[in-house]
Specification:
Helix content: 25-40%
Low-confidence stretches: none
CATH architecture of the largest domain: 2-Layer Sandwich
Mean pLDDT: 89
CATH class of the largest domain: Alpha Beta
Number of strands: 6
Strand order of the largest sheet: 4-1-6
Distance between the termini: 88 Å
Number of helices: 6
Order of helices and strands: HEHEEHEEHEHH
Length: about 190
């Protein structure tokens, strides 16, 4: 029957209108600045960098630049840190994301092999200056692993478990290598 979809939509609207007088959860309008709806765990807005203990020393990012290459709008800019001899160090000297260009596609999160970049739930990013204030640098992007556990507890638990298992395997491999070297020396 033609127009059946319109009738179903009108019925649902009428149900919500009448139900909102009796059930608070049916009320669809929220007085935003005063009231806020808690975001769902799988909600995503803009990326942030995860650090474990110290934001300067324990940033998970090793500046491999995979996220920079894969970003469709090219809003990520990374410069690798170099030591006195000019050799690249596995740490980003510059890590900038232009959130005015970012389309929150989450490709950077998916391609990161070190689980260093994740999606935040912060959505109110209005600023006075739309150019400088919306260019997030490494310091502004860095957020702790505890914060990550607060906003995405299920995903963060899986990631931490996987990273712990990888560390155990690396330690076991190093120990086996050390024992093999000791046997060869003896």
């Amino acid at each position: 029957m033609v127009g059946l979809g319109i009738l179903k939509g009108l019925r649902e609207t009428a149900r919500n209108l009448i139900g909102s007088f009796y059930q608070k959860e049916r009320l669809t309008t929220v007085q935003y600045p005063e009231e806020k709806i808690a975001p769902k765990e799988n909600n995503r807005n803009f990326p942030f960098l995860v650090f474990d203990k110290d934001p300067e020393a324990n940033l998970r990012c090793v500046s491999c630049k995979i996220c920079e290459k894969e970003c469709p709008p090219q809003c990520i800019y990374i410069v690798q840190k170099r030591n006195e001899k000019g050799k690249a160090v596995k740490y980003p000297e510059v890590f900038d994301i232009d959130v005015s260009v970012c389309m929150s596609c989450q490709i950077c999160v998916e391609v990161c092999p070190f689980d260093a970049i994740k999606m935040d739930q912060e959505f109110a990013l209005s600023r006075e200056d739309r150019f400088e204030d919306l260019l997030f640098d490494r310091v502004r992007l860095s957020k702790s692993n505890e914060y990550y556990h607060q906003i995405h507890p299920t995903e963060a638990g899986e990631v931490d478990g996987r990273l712990k298992e990888q560390r155990k395997q690396a330690e076991a491999k190093a120990e086996a290598k050390k024992q093999a070297a000791e046997k060869a020396a003896a």
